[in-house]
Amino acid sequence: xxxxxxxxxxxxxxxxxxxxxxxxxxxxxxxxxxxxxxxxxxxxxxxxxxxxxxxxxxxxxxxxxxxxxxxxxxxxxxxxxxxxxxxxxxxxxxxxxxxxxxxxxxxxxxxxxxxxxxxxxxxxxxxxxxxxxxxxxxxxxxxxxxxxxxxxxxxxxxxxxxxxxxxxxxxxxxxxxxxxxxxxxxxxxxxxxxxxxxxxxxxx
Length: 204
Fold this sequence. Notes:
The radius of gyration is 20 Å and the shape is elongated. The chain is 73% helix and 0% strand. The protein has 10 helices and no strands. It has one domain: Tetracycline Repressor, domain 2. Mean pLDDT is 87; it is low at 143-148. The protein is an all-alpha fold.
């Protein structure tokens, strides 16, 4: 029984991971330098098995975004009522950066390469919108933008501002990223508060 257990454990460790293989190749070759057969070979998957899951590279992009979402959401507990929505968002977005850290080189390449591929950029943007919606829902800060101060569109702007800092932040504590994220959240909160106050005044 012990031998069978060891074999089963070894098989799980050797399970192909095409998403991780894709991100590794992206870091090395860039978006245009990676083909689907390249990813299948790097992941150790037969082409017929690989093709059943991934028809194009944007499928791999979407799978990567979902993986990060799942990892962050799995580490997120129930909202703490003693924290403000802004504090909760700061925490979950910093944990998102932690999850992205192993793929930073690949994401640097993507930030340069995707603008040259409008279709891939659109797929990435659509996935980002869903990701930010999940982040809002997880912290109870508004979800679909109907409740709370923060909306999905507003959080996307916050995230992109912080990402720009993160991509050039090589400090061990991500201090530059934290400062950029805090600044962006504060600005978004101020704008949302002002807009809500104006809406309330207009309805009186």
